[in-house]
Design brief:
693 residues, two-stranded antiparallel sheet, 23 helices, elongated
Length: 693
């Protein structure tokens, strides 16, 4: 083999060494006397192991034929001629799953490596296992044709060996991943895959590998790694280390992480007599993890990527069993198409020809691709994925066209039915036409009458609307003027408010004692007498103050009970609005005398003479100030009141006009609605009459 199959750039993986011999003997060593009792059976087993190790990795069909049909037969013929016929029987299928029940946990697992004899035995068992798999895990739609079963048995054989790793090479859609899942389930292994996400990098990959090794401490796992997972070429460095030494250096940095893993296998190591040292236990864990780990690499041979990766990371070739997936044979293509089209309602007479045509089209692409390569020096790969897409597109197009044709048939049937119904209805409609024409004329007369009535009411409503609009404008102008006059009057009254507030504050400082002291004065200062006299005049509109008994009258006033309350009530109530002109004149005369006497304009002139008189003086000034403002404001207030009354009357008149206008509008709306109803009925009747005509 070394002489006839040299390594070349295209055949970069043609490496044959003692590892291959060890794999052959590993397969021989799992045999048992029960399943291989004769020399014939053992020679046939040797042929199978050589084929699996040497022939499966070859990427050229001529090389495979040379090994399978020349080298191995010649060796058997030379050393075991009596076993030639039995050893060379086809197919060559060996495995240990024929009696297993992967789903039955309690059942015994008699995994005995044996000759599976033919594809029917394998297909029957694998269909049963596939049904169990689909019921327990995510369903897979697999067609177990002979070519798929052949590769399924190969993958299962590899991962059943301790430290059995595989490199599956084939174009997309050839079944590498699906067959690996089913083989792992059949072998009793769990599947582990990384899940790519945004910003997935080396740190996330190491975290996933840590999870994997924790799982390996408890069970056997198939780590399926595809070329789509290689977002960073550095990932292959980790895979290369796992294949060659079983562990990624520095994957577990801390002693705590290592101790946790060691503790998971500590009891098992103790039972096997391993020393309880840190290094010994760690080596035991690594060896167990390596035995339980089965790496299955699913790669595509397109381009130079695979060759470069295998050159940079030699463990991908030297520490794996290679299985090369070639183009599906014709019988495989036929079986797949037959499976997918089984449920399609195709004519029985043409179904087989349709399937053959689909197979022919796919196979013809390979021939045309060769012609394309020679002519344009460019490669075109026709993959199983293209074939599956071809079938799915055909099924989609079939459903779409069938749906369209069915809809056209229903449409034609509906049209014919309508034509028959129309013919029957023409006779009935003709009879209705004469009656409909009479009704149309009657409704037309009603509509015309309504139009005249609506026009009359509309003109009346428009006139009322014009009157209401003019009235509203006038009211808005009056309302604005009244608001301005009222605001002006209120502002003028507010000017007197500070004086009133000063009067209240001055009175709040007085007490009955202050008034009694003032009353007790037999001959008060002249300014004091004039202040009290002015107060007397303002409070007593009906009494006159005689100059002869001026102070005695003032003392009577000061002696009245509740004088302060009377003064406060006077200034707070309506009395201050009724001060007469003579009261103002006389009171102002007294206050002017005081101003003439206070030649220095001393603000505390009156306080120095008497406290009570000072407070009353402030009140007198406030009342006169208020009266002065009130006389200006009062006419304006009366004018505002009169205008407001007139405005209310005008608003009442406007409301009356608006009510009349609303009544007219409602009546007009009723007439309009009736008109529209009559017009709609007239339109319907007219249309029906035109149709019937």
């Amino acid at each position: 083999i070394l002489e006839k199959l040299p390594r070349t750039p295209v055949k970069f993986h043609y490496i044959f060494n003692l590892r291959d011999l060890s794999r052959i003997y590993e397969g021989l060593c799992v045999s048992s006397i029960d399943k291989f009792p004769t020399k014939d059976s053992l020679v046939r087993l040797w042929r199978n192991e050589c084929t699996r190790v040497f022939s499966d990795k070859l990427c050229v069909e001529g090389d495979r034929q040379m090994v399978s049909e020349e080298v191995l037969p010649d060796l058997i013929k030379e050393f075991f001629p009596d076993c030639m016929d039995f050893a060379m029987r086809e197919p060559l299928l060996f495995g240990d799953f024929l009696l297993t029940e992967p789903e039955d946990i309690d059942a015994e697992d008699p995994r005995l490596y044996e000759d599976l004899e033919d594809f029917d035995n394998v297909r029957k068992k694998m269909e049963y296992i596939l049904e169990e798999y689909n019921g327990r895990l995510k369903p897979m739609e697999l067609v177990l044709f002979n070519y798929a079963l052949d590769h399924l048995v190969r993958v299962h054989r590899i991962i059943r060996f301790p430290r059995g790793n595989a490199l599956l090479v084939g174009y997309g859609g050839s079944g590498k991943q699906s067959l690996t899942r089913l083989a792992a389930y059949t072998a009793g292994h769990n599947i582990f895959q990384i899940t790519l996400a945004r910003n997935y990098g080396e740190r996330e990959f190491k975290e996933d590998l840590q999870k994997l090794y924790k799982q390996l401490a408890k069970e056997s796992v198939v780590f399926m790694f595809t070329d789509a997972h290689i977002v960073d070429e550095g990932f292959l460095e980790y895979i290369n280390n796992m294949l060659t030494i079983g562990m990624v250096p520095a994957l577990f940095d801390s002693d705590d992480d290592k101790n946790n893993l060691v503790n998971m296998v500590k009891d098992e190591a103790k039972r096997q007599g391993v020393r309880e040292s840190k290094d010994a236990l760690w080596n035991f864990f690594v060896n167990k993890a390596r035995d339980n780990l089965h790496i299955v690499l699913c790669m595509s041979p397109a381009g130079d990527t695979l060759r470069i990766r295998c050159r940079n990371f030699p463990g991908l070739v030297s520490n794996t069993c290679i299985d090369w997936f070639f183009t599906w044979p014709e019988e495989a293509l036929y079986a797949v198409a037959q499976n997918f089209l089984e449920q399609e309602p195709l004519p029985a007479d043409h179904k087989d020809n349709i399937i053959k045509h689909i197979v022919h089209v796919h196979l013809s692409i390979a021939d045309l691709s060769e012609e394309f390569l020679h002519k344009f020096k460019r490669k075109n790969h026709s993959t199983p994925k293209n074939y599956l897409d071809f079938i799915n597109n055909y099924r989609t197009l079939l459903k779409s066209n069938r749906k369209y044709i069915d809809s056209q048939v229903k449409r034609l049937e509906g049209g014919l039915t309508k034509l028959i119904q129309a013919s029957e209805e023409v006779t009935v409609l003709s009879a209705k036409l004469e009656k409909a024409n009479v009704v149309v004329q009657e409704n037309k007369a009603k509509v015309e009458k309504l139009i005249v009535e609506i026009d009359t009411n509309t003109a009346q409503a428009n006139a009322q609307q014009q009157i209401a609009a003019e009235k509203k404008v006038e009211l808005d102008e009056n309302r604005a003027k009244i608001s301005a006059d009222k605001a002006e009057a209120d502002a003028a009254l507010e000017q007197a408010e500070p004086a009133l507030e000063m009067a209240r504050a001055a009175l709040d400082k007085l007490s009955k004692k202050d008034l009694d002291e003032l009353k007790a004065l037999p001959q008060p200062p002249t300014a004091v007498r004039w202040v009290v006299s002015a107060t007397y005049i303002l409070l007593n509109a009906k009494k006159k103050l005689s100059p002869d008994n001026e102070w005695s009258s003032c003392r009577e006033l000061l002696g009245e009970m509740g004088l302060l309350g009377k003064i406060l009530a006077f200034s707070a109530g309506k009395d201050k609005d009724n001060i007469k002109d003579n009261q103002v004149k006389n009171a102002r005369e007294y206050l002017n005398r005081i101003y003439r006497e206070n030649k220095d304009d001393d603000p505390k002139f009156m306080e120095k003479k008497n406290k009570a008189a000072a407070g009353l003086n402030v009140w007198n000034e406030a009342m006169l100030k208020y009266n002065e403002v009130y006389r200006v404001v009062e006419p304006k207030r009366k004018a505002v009141a009169a205008a407001t009354k007139k405005l209310l009357q005008a608003e009442s008149d406007l409301e009356k006009i608006s009510n009349e206008l609303n009544a007219l509008n409602k009546q007009l709306a009723i007439l309009q609605e009736e008109k529209e109803k009559q017009e709609a009925e007239l339109a319907i009747l007219t249309a029906e009459a035109e149709k019937m005509a």
